[in-house]
Amino acid sequence: MLKIFFLVSLVLLAASHIQSVKSSSSGGSDAGVQKPCARLFHPEIGEQLELPSLPEKKKKLLGGAAAGSEGAFSFSSFTMMDGCLLSLWVAGSQEWGLESRSFPSGAYLNQLPGAGVSLTSYQCTCDQEKNQVTADYEDFKNRHIAGENEQGSDEFCTREIRSRHIYEYGRCKDKNTFIFAKAKDVKHVCDHEGVNVSNKLFNISECIQNKLKCSYRANNKYQVHICLVCKDKKPVHYKGPTC
Fold it and tell me: What gap in Å lies between CA 130 and CA 134, rounded to an integer?
């Protein structure tokens, strides 16, 4: 049940900002209208709530009345506007495995952590498109870059995927590739926007999940080119040893 109430505190904290936006827009002047950062959707009655762009991280606001108002704010899906980024900080999330997660532009359905979690703070910004790129690049580094002196093995794959909490749809990924290099060397592959193939050769390990959940076997490849998707000269997605 806590899953559907996850954004209660976010909604309450944003309410005053939203009201000011509505008041400004009702006056007929475009100057007072603030671009929405995100739209939250009620799964049953079809209502939606807009979150404004906020300049700084906000702490949660959770009162007894809010916690007990069943069904009042059960926003289980949301849409991020173009160029916007929603960051949520949570406590007690084993499903996420992380203290925070960022959601760039796009639509999200049932992407919130489950029971036993609480929202500690949030930030929604639309200042620059680089917010999205920064979030994607940090996620890329966590998922794909290992130390240049590391070596791929079954133990390495299982340990790193678990400790880095590399999940997909709330479960351990079926397959994840680690690149054994310095982050700056991988970043240098991105000379241009879009898809780039490295001139430099890298050692990689493809970690493939066994039948035992979150247990992996390593498929090591040595001195291969890597293919990356790049934005703002930063890698944001690993496509493979070839494109």
Answer: 6
Give, for 77, the enclosing helix (H) or strand (E).
strand 77-80
**Cβ-Cβ contacts under 8 Å for 163 (sequence gap 6 or more):** none
How many other β-carbons are positioned within 10 Å of the β-carbon of residue 37? 23
pTM: 0.52
Do residues 54 and 131 make contact, with C-beta atoms less than 8 angstroms apart?
Answer: no
> Cα(137)–Cα(73) distance, rounded to whole angstroms?
32
Q: Please give the structure tokens belonging to residue 27.
A: 């006056």
Domains contained in the chain, number = 2
Paired with 123 in beta bridges are 87
Whether 138 and 120 share a structural domain:
no
Those residues whose C-beta lies under 8 Å from the C-beta of residue 127, and which sit 6 or more positions away, are 53, 55
Q: What pLDDT, in 10s, does the model give residues 26-53?
A: 333 333 446 788 888 766 656 677 888 8
Whether residue 168 is found in the same domain as residue 224:
yes
Task: Give exposure, 119-146, as e/b (b: 16+ Cβ within 10 Å).
Answer: bbbbbbbbeebebbbbbbbebbbebbbb
Cβ–Cβ < 8 Å for 85, 104 = yes
